[in-house]
Write a structure and sequence with these properties.
With 343 residues, the protein is α+β, with helices and mostly antiparallel strands. The protein has a single domain, classed as Jelly Rolls, CATH 2.60.120. It has ten helices and 14 strands. The strands form three sheets. It has an eight-stranded mixed β-sheet. Strands 6-11-8-9 form a four-stranded antiparallel β-sheet, with no helix packed on it. Helix 4 packs across helix 6. The relative contact order is 0.17. This is Fe2OG dioxygenase domain-containing protein. Keywords: Iron, Metal-binding, Oxidoreductase. Belongs to the iron/ascorbate-dependent oxidoreductase family.
Length: 343
């Protein structure tokens, strides 16, 4: 496995190898800056003693999930120093020698620790300008034991973000007209899957020909993202790609995933997004993907089927099977979600 980092640091690199050339880039219109303000959710209001304020932020969550599938979270209680340390320690991981990182190379999509490049280098026809580290941090915690201090930082960060996600899903449960603990109990979040992912996108000499990560939706319920301040995230909003820059300190970018779309019977849609690259600066992002218990069968909530008389839009599927289907194949838009649509 050849890392993109090593390739990008080659002193004579002027043109990217043909395996990284994404022909779709030539016909893709440029992304726009969003016309509407990105929804911002004040997390502190979800736990406020004021019932009116709680109800208002639940309404805002509903709009954010319906109209965007994407929002920013502020006042979440996770220390900014911890968030900065996560970025720094992730950079230190990628800065280790190839020999040191080699012991973590991916073998199976459910390996607890996976270091690799592209998305699925065994099946990708076009490689993506990206190196990654994926670590399953819950229900059982795993993490590389180097660089020094990385494991301790990831452990604390995974715990703190899990609490944020739990509270957000309680608010979303209410916004769907359910008891606030309904999502939590039904999908067994206590043993839910949480994956820590660090993504490295080095400078690319031909950024118009390459893609950091192709259009896709996330497989879980909610994904939290932070980065090192270098832009590159784009989401599809109202059929157009828009640039997203997290220029608000100490905030999370949050997007909805496929399992939330299935569970809500399509009321909330997972958002399609991608990562683009540049020729000047390294972009580093850290995402935490949060899903149901691996053994849980996910299907539309009964309220949206039996009580409201609607047909289920999706067939039941165990989350583990969905994850293996998505991670074990080439990633193309929302094709995995299309496979579980009811005929």
């Amino acid at each position: 496995m050849n890392s993109v980092k090593a390739l990008a640091e080659s002193p004579d690199l002027r043109h990217i190898p043909s395996i990284y050339v994404n022909s779709a880039n030539s016909t893709e219109p440029p992304a726009l800056d969003p016309e509407d303000a990105i929804p911002t959710i004040d997390f502190s209001l979800l736990t406020s003693d004021d019932a009116y304020l709680r109800s208002q932020v639940v309404k805002e969550l509903d709009i954010a999930c319906k109209d965007w599938g994407f929002f920013r979270v502020i006042n979440h209680g996770v220390p900014e120093s911890l968030m900065n340390m996560v970025i720094e320690k992730s950079k230190e991981f990628f800065d280790m020698s190839d020999e040191e990182k080699k012991e973590f190379e991916e073998k199976d999509v459910l390996d607890p620790i996976r270091y690799g490049t592209s998305f699925n280098s065994k099946k990708d026809e076009i490689f993506y300008w990206r190196d990654f580290l994926k670590v399953i941090v819950h229900p059982e915690f795993t993490c590389p034991n180097k660089p020094l201090g990385f494991r301790e930082v990831v452990l604390e960060y995974s715990k703190r973000t899990r609490e944020v996600v739990k509270e957000l899903l309680r608010g979303i449960s209410r916004s769907l007209g359910l008891d606030q603990s309904y999502v939590e109990k039904t999908l067994k979040l206590e043993s839910g899957l949480q994956i820590f992912v660090a993504n490295l996108y080095p400078p690319c000499p031909q950024p118009d020909l390459a893609i950091g990560f192709p259009p896709h939706s996330d497989h879980g319920l909610l994904t939290l993202l932070i980065n090192n301040g270098v832009g590159g995230l784009q989401i599809k909003h109202k059929g157009k790609w828009v640039n997203i820059n997290n220029n608000l300190p100490n905030s999370f970018l949050v997007n909805t995933g496929d399992q939330l779309q299935v569970f809500s019977n399509g009321r909330y849609s997972s958002v399609e997004h991608r990562a683009v690259v540049n020729n000047a600066a390294t972009r580093l992002s850290v995402v935490v993907v949060n899903g149901p218990s691996l053994d849980e069968v996910v299907e539309p909530a009964k309220k949206f089927v039996t009580e409201e008389g609607c047909s289920p839009a999706y067939i039941p599927m165990k989350y583990k099977e969905y994850l293996e289907m998505q991670q074990g194949n080439q990633i193309v838009g929302k094709t995995c979600l299309d496979r579980v649509r009811a005929v």
